[in-house]
Specification:
heterodimer; A: 111 residues; six-stranded mixed sheet; globular; B: 113 residues; mainly beta
Chain lengths: 111, 113
């Protein structure tokens, strides 16, 4: 019940394309869903986050779509750029600490 | 305007030795969290501390691991009698308040020989 399942494990997208990463959860008590971006050798950095009272949140080229009934949320990166190549993690929490993390998606944007 | 600082960045220990990892939170942050990341995996919560208090250590192994966040100075994660399975990246995060965004440090990569 505490798991967050993330897919795909790796993703290759052409420059300018849309990158889509999906996550699913079981615990309906979760009320905070952040996405983190991590570059090799660095710590994770918060990209965008959503709470379950909204179905979509957009910040620049990054959009979170949230489906409460399906217990799924996804990250969309529009107009993907080589600089977006990184590992992306979804996470979930019901207290905004003790984040429960997905396993990560290694994203490669081909020029 | 420094972010979360961790040191050392890389630490090599032989089996049976002690590892001490330090974390200085962002200025003004009094909430610290430690996570462990194994290769190709997501982070796993270990412990949440406020100044001088352990709030939640449910993710920390019962033996050999301890954490503190003293009134003065950095937070310390201590691993006694390290084993090869302790090899991982250890990340510290800090926040202004419990339900606020967590800012992560660059991590300490521990290798146990």
């Amino acid at each position: 019940q505490q798991q967050v399942k993330q897919s795909p494990q790796s993703l290759i997208v052409q420059k300018g394309g849309i990158s889509i990463i999906n996550c699913a959860y079981e615990n309906t008590a979760f009320d905070y869903f952040p996405w983190y971006q991590q570059f090799p050798g660095k710590g994770p950095a918060l990209l965008i986050a959503i709470r379950p009272d909204v179905s979509e949140k957009k910040e620049g080229r990054f959009t979170i779509s949230f489906n409460k009934s399906a217990k799924q949320f996804s990250l969309h990166i529009m107009d993907s750029q080589p600089g977006d190549s990184a590992t992306y993690f979804c996470a979930a929490s019901y207290s905004n600490y003790q984040l429960i993390w997905g396993a990560g998606t290694k994203l490669i944007i081909k020029p | 305007n420094a972010g979360v600082m961790q040191n050392p960045r890389h630490l090599v220990r032989r089996r049976g030795q002690e590892a001490r990892l330090r974390c200085s939170p962002m200025k003004g942050h009094s909430h610290v969290y430690w996570y462990r990341q194994l290769p190709e995996e997501g982070l796993k919560f270990m412990v949440y501390l406020q100044k001088e208090n352990i709030i939640d250590e449910s993710g920390m192994p019962k033996e050999r691991f301890s954490a503190e966040f003293p009134k003065e100075g950095p937070s310390i994660l201590r691993i006694q009698q390290v084993v090869r399975g302790d090899s991982a990246a250890y990340f510290c995060a800090s926040s202004l308040a419990p339900r606020n965004e967590q800012f992560f440090g660059p991590g300490t990569r521990l290798t146990v020989l």
